[in-house]
## 1
Amino acid sequence: LSKVIAFVFPQGKGGNKHFQSDKPEGFLQAERTLNFHLLPKTVKRRVYALKRLQLQSANIEAKFYEEVHELERKYAGLYQPNFDKRRDIVAGAVEPTDEECEWQSDREEEELAEDLQKKAALEEKQADSAGADDPRGVPEFWLTIFKRVNMLAEMLQEHDEPILKHLQDITVKFSEPGQPMSFTLEFYFEPNSYFSNTVLTKVYKMKSEPDAEDPFSFEGPEIIDCEGCKIDWHKGKDVTVRIVKKKQKHKGRGTVRTVTKEVPQESFFNFFNPEKGKRKCDLDFTLTTDFEIGHFFRERVIPRAVLYFTGEALEDDESVRLLSCVIQDLDDEGEEEDEGDFDPTVSI
Amino acid sequence: LSKVIAFVFPQGKGGNKHFQSDKPEGFLQAERTLNFHLLPKTVKRRVYALKRLQLQSANIEAKFYEEVHELERKYAGLYQPNFDKRRDIVAGAVEPTDEECEWQSDREEEELAEDLQKKAALEEKQADSAGADDPRGVPEFWLTIFKRVNMLAEMLQEHDEPILKHLQDITVKFSEPGQPMSFTLEFYFEPNSYFSNTVLTKVYKMKSEPDAEDPFSFEGPEIIDCEGCKIDWHKGKDVTVRIVKKKQKHKGRGTVRTVTKEVPQESFFNFFNPEKGKRKCDLDFTLTTDFEIGHFFRERVIPRAVLYFTGEALEDDESVRLLSCVIQDLDDEGEEEDEGDFDPTVSI
């Protein structure tokens, strides 16, 4: 829904970009208030009346967004048969008919440079003969998407890849009417040797009403919290930790013994860490990223997965890429220092 | 609607930012296609089936946005009584009751630095006594907004200001169901000495369906065209032109005579130039800005005018302001050179 119109105001809130701000913030604030105070009392009174009307509008707006949420629920149902079909084709549970596979790919062929095409033809032949044992469905469909989409690739570690080969579907579920607004991402896995869960979930809770303290900042539903789930790892398979050996010296006797300890390590599967959403205050930046990822799964990856698989979701917009770099730079400034690798042999 | 969630992807389209793009675009494109070509035929076939499903989803999505548009029409009706009341209070046609003006402004008072407050108290007194002839409504309500919002202030010229003092309301009207999707901005003026129109309009036409050529780029309705209106200026009052005197030398006789000619000059009222939307190809940048302005009126200025009047729509988000500056810089790079002022005494 963040895409109804191509011109999205990057600030999201308040249209700040368009406000004159060549004076220091504090001064501006004071000047503004002063200007307001300079108004004759009768006029100020009328402006307060306008603000009360604005409050009413904010409450109407909240109802509007509730109805949009309902509409999203309704359409989730309409998309579902397509998503189910996608899941079945990807998993190899269903083989599409010839009619279902018809695709005008002439243009794509043309776009392929000629030498690349020759190479492709050759390798395709090899691939076909090598794959005499015809692969099931679309192998590594979701893993390929994880590798191709930067935001996801950043979370992906080498040890995650064999696990994500078992990922068979990602879905989003919206909260029921009357419930607090939320959406749940569900990651479905085929039986595997890493954990016993068949589905890993992450709930994003949303705030859908104006804040009593600051009603005018309301801009529609906002993610305010999230909750992962416990992964039941098989013994020794948990990729979110690693075993470090530490040498302990006995204070009195001076003897040294080696103990092993689990320490956290980077992994996509930390995304489901149920504790993550709770450490709110000190992790503002991380949480923002987490919310962005949740939103990105919901709005882009899940609805149009095949376009990320083929790469078509990437568009050749140079200015956008330029802007992205800049945003990346700004993001980096906000990021904390890398914590550095754990040294597994450190003595304590 | 571009604000359902605070995390708006600045690129609007395709989530490009999150795509790995450390290789040249052409190479990436080829590599991607090649990767796709390397897939066994049976797998490629299934991916085509997934793309056909994706096409169906794009068409469902178009229906979703039509329903959102309907919802917006419905809510426009619910907001309207508040907007009417606002118009009447601003114009002084209605005096709000004491109850309607109740406002908890303690916090605002506190925020005002003490010395400023003293000054304010003094000037307020002066203002009140000076304004023994109590001003009608909220004078210069819309003009103040034009001055405060950068995007509008950039269009505003000194000669526009006395005219905009007569602006009494701005509204948005959505297209009827079954009609091609559009919205119309309407600017209502009280009778004035500049032009005879009581309302100036600008229609923004939208495209609400996937493009047959490129269906996967569909991201919801998009502004594709706009149309202003003719302003019936009173004689000599048109601020969108100015009179220049030019000296003409007779080729044969060498005598010089002075002729006057109207040349365009900058003015907010060029916003209504009915020709503007038509010169499409050579004015891409200008049109983008025009579309942004239309969207900004619709989504921000009209729904929450009083917050721009008081300045509350401005939020103190330093990172956002930083980002805005950068975006501004990028914009500037795309801009054409200034054409420079017209020299009114140039000889031809």
Note: Strands of chain B lie at 167-174, 182-189, 199-207, 222-227, 241-249, 256-264.
## 2
Amino acid sequence: MKNILIASTSTLHGSGYLEYIMEALTDFFKEANEILFIPYARPGGVSHDDYTELVSNAFLKIGKKVKGLHTCSDPKMAVKGAKAIFVGGGNTFVLTNQLYKNDLIGVLKQSVGNGTPYLGTSAGSNICGLSIRTTNDMPIVYPPSFNALAFVPFNINPHYLDPDVNSKHMGETRETRIKEFHHFNTQPVIGLREGSWLHVNDSSIILKGNLSARIFEYNKQPYEVAPNTDLSELK
Amino acid sequence: MKNILIASTSTLHGSGYLEYIMEALTDFFKEANEILFIPYARPGGVSHDDYTELVSNAFLKIGKKVKGLHTCSDPKMAVKGAKAIFVGGGNTFVLTNQLYKNDLIGVLKQSVGNGTPYLGTSAGSNICGLSIRTTNDMPIVYPPSFNALAFVPFNINPHYLDPDVNSKHMGETRETRIKEFHHFNTQPVIGLREGSWLHVNDSSIILKGNLSARIFEYNKQPYEVAPNTDLSELK
């Protein structure tokens, strides 16, 4: 019953908000007139109102209404009753913390498990994995747990970035960080490059977009998978 | 009584481990024949033994013995009795988690507060701040708290990196991340570039090395401070 779209980013360099993926979203949200938007990740500290307005304007182009979850008096009931859900990017720790504080983890799992279409971008995609332990974000708040929604049986690394071979900076590359993750955790990690997304539809998990994705499995060399690969065997 | 050296990195591009700072360390550790090394941050998942060997070899050049804390049967007593302490880099979450699990936060605060010289690099510098909420590391384990050793009344961002104006990647710049931090936290943050360190000596906190540092204060524009600036008024 699942119908989930897990996107690396909301925005490609030089294009508008959600513009690169809007054609896919037209089909993805075809059954829903209204999308429930969860603005908790607050990119750049933006207010929930301003963030929701940005999203509303983007979805206006395909004739969808957007309702911000922060305007709902009962957030749990709002999630339960939603025809479609979008969780936008920002800070994954802030997002996760707010989901726990509002006791929304369980109802999100239930609604999306029952087929409510869910779109995540960036932080909203991180939380689709088993945990948020492969986020790139700064831990600016302390959430009650790093466990996430577990819509897929692996972890997501959005905004995946290949090592810059000319860099003289001694901070870790993304690949080094994910390898460190595997010294303490065993689930696979999908490095999703900007412009890529996963479409989870019932039991299939298809890589979409024009780019390959990088897969990190415990005790294996990382490898690339091409667009349209089905990743449902990965666990 | 404090005598603390908080370095952005252990290693500069193209030079050996601790090489750029060894002259300063010769003076800093002049009273100690043996340095207690805390290898918990495990960069790249390296073993405690291998990490301690790397550090031993580096300090051999200035005639210092190094003892790994993991070889001590009573880590708390080892910290209490240490003549000098070095906490190396790696993953800040792994390091913080191990410090809490071994109940070392209190004794470290006490020993360093009483004047035991403390050197931190990278993750070992992050934990010198009020919290680890401005680390760059991936949250690969869940520590019991993000609160850190609070040797200084602000937060550290080691490996500080200026924005790449040519980048087409949509992930946040370091400055954007620290600004997000200030939507949820009010303490100042020092962005320490690689090659810079802070020397905390009694009540003075002097920026050392050849580069300026970037200071982020709540509700203020970020600004640069030159080497040899005393930052003890920052809080």
Note: The first strand of chain A starts at residue 3 and ends at 7.
